């Protein structure tokens, strides 16, 4: 397939009409990669089952993993959702547009190819100006998973999307690096009580300020619990996997820095570290700085790009720190644990 064309726009200053042809492509059932405030999305018309199926082919994704449907505002919700509980209205009033996805009972108009055969649909109203303008130009709800090949880290820059999907989609829209850098918070309102399915840019504390207590899906908890123990190599669940095995260290800042400095002397070692510790890692074959230790937002923005650069550098093993669970830290920790297949040493 020939190389995919690229439309480059400055999110701070662009003509929404420049997105008219992209909107047309989506209405025609084609695939368009676009920036959002979390990660880049691989979009298709969510009401067109064949278009939605082509997402799975382009990504190499198992077809039972449902897609998030993106809307420019809440007006499109009743078309997709059988029932919109008060909690959903309160959440969208508080956090839309923004990095929150809400799972609701679906109407039959949402194809099985989008819902993965479930009777629910995940809906998100992104805040990125290019995403919003594109959704308005498209005039149809847009199903969009992260624009990476299945199993690779989510893309936070257009270069990541090109690495994975060039020639497999009709258009790339480049809006520069993503602001949050981790995928949206996914919260289900389809069960008995509000349940967090994936931690992200909207924190548990923010959700609880609106909803009262939020249950956390046992899978999220189990992953975190497993992360507290040193685990055998070769574990599965490496959803955000870099090519080399990654091991994370948890402990005091000094103990983690000492451990990383020691590991950095191993031949071929890739080190992921906080900015404050970088000067101690001079022996590392490849070094990636995650950001200042106290700046979780900066670390969230940097993580997926760093994981991809380790792949490019061909390191033989990766060592990094495991942050705490507070605020956005829960999402960062969740993604790091997945990338490491829960391989953690406790110092
Ligand atoms: O930030 C994001 O959410 C990005 C951007 C592009 O919007 N999208 C994204 O999509 O991360 P994806 O497909 O990589 O992740 C969607 C997650 C998956 O874990 C999927 O299983 C879950 O949401 N999901 C989607 N629909 C669901 C449903 N009906 N019930 C439960 N989980 C659902
Ligand atoms: Mg994804």
How would you characterize this protein structure?
The strands form two sheets. An eleven-stranded mixed beta sheet has the order 1-8-2-3-7-4-6-5-9-10-11, with helices on both faces. It has a five-stranded parallel beta sheet with strand order 14-13-15-12-16, with helices on both faces. It is of the alpha/beta class. The chain has two domains: 215 residues, DHBP synthase (Alpha-Beta Complex); 102 residues, Rossmann fold (3-Layer(aba) Sandwich), CATH 3.40.50. The protein starts with 5 loop residues before the first strand and ends with a strand. Strand 9 and strand 10 form a beta hairpin. Bound molecules: threonylcarbamoyladenylate and magnesium ion (MG).
Reconstruct the topology from this structure.
Blueprint: E1 6-8, H1 20-27, E2 32-34, E3 41-45, H2 49-59, E4 68-70, H3 77-80, H4 86-95, E5 100-105, H5 112-115, E6 120-124, H6 129-138, E7 142-143, H7 158-165, E8 171-174, E9 185-188, E10 195-198, H8 204-211, E11 215-216, H9 218-227, E12 245-250, H10 253-263, E13 269-274, E14 286-291, H11 296-313, E15 317-321, H12 329-339, E16 344-346
Parallel strand pairs: 1-8, 2-8, 4-6, 5-9, 10-11, 12-15, 12-16, 13-14, 13-15
Antiparallel strand pairs: 2-3, 3-7, 4-7, 5-6, 9-10
Helix pairs in contact: 1-6, 9-12, 11-12
The chain binds threonylcarbamoyladenylate and magnesium ion.
Magnesium ion is lined by residues 145-146, 154.
């Amino acid at each position: 397939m020939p190389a995919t064309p690229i439309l480059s726009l400055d999110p701070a200053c662009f003509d929404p009409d420049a997105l008219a042809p992209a909107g047309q492509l989506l209405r025609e059932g084609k695939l368009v990669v676009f920036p959002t405030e979390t990660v880049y999305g691989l979009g298709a018309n969510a009401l067109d089952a064949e278009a939605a199926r082509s997402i799975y082919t382009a990504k190499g994704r198992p077809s039972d993993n449902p897609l998030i449907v993106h809307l420019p505002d809440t007006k499109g919700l009743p078309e997709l959702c059988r029932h919109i509980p008060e909690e959903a209205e309160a959440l969208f009033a508080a956090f839309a547009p923004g990095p929150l996805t809400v799972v609701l009972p679906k109407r039959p108009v949402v194809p099985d190819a989008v819902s993965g055969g479930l009777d629910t649909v995940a809906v998100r109203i992104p805040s990125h100006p290019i995403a919003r303008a594109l959704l308005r130009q498209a005039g149809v709800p847009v199903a969009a998973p992260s624009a990476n090949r299945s199993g690779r880290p989510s893309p936070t820059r257009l270069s990541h999307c090109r690495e994975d999907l060039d020639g497999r989609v009709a258009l790339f829209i480049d809006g520069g690096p993503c602001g949050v850098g981790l995928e949206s918070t996914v919260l289900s309102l389809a069960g008995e009580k509000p349940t967090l399915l994936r931690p992200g840019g909207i924190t548990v504390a923010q959700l609880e300020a609106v909803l009262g207590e939020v249950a956390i899906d046992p899978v999220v908890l189990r992953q975190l619990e497993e992360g507290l123990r040193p685990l055998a190599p070769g574990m599965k669940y490496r959803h955000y996997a870099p090519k080399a095995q990654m091991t994370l260290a948890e402990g005091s800042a000094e103990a983690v820095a000492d451990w990383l400095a020691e590991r950095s002397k191993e031949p071929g070692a890739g080190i992921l570290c906080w900015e404050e510790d970088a000067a101690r890692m001079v022996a590392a074959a490849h070094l990636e700085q995650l950001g200042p230790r106290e700046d979780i937002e900066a670390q969230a923005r940097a993580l997926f790009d760093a994981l991809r650069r380790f792949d490019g550098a061909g390191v033989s093993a990766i060592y990094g720190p495991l942050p705490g669970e507070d605020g956005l830290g829960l999402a960062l920790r969740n993604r790091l644990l997945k990338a490491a297949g829960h391989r953690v040493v406790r110092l």
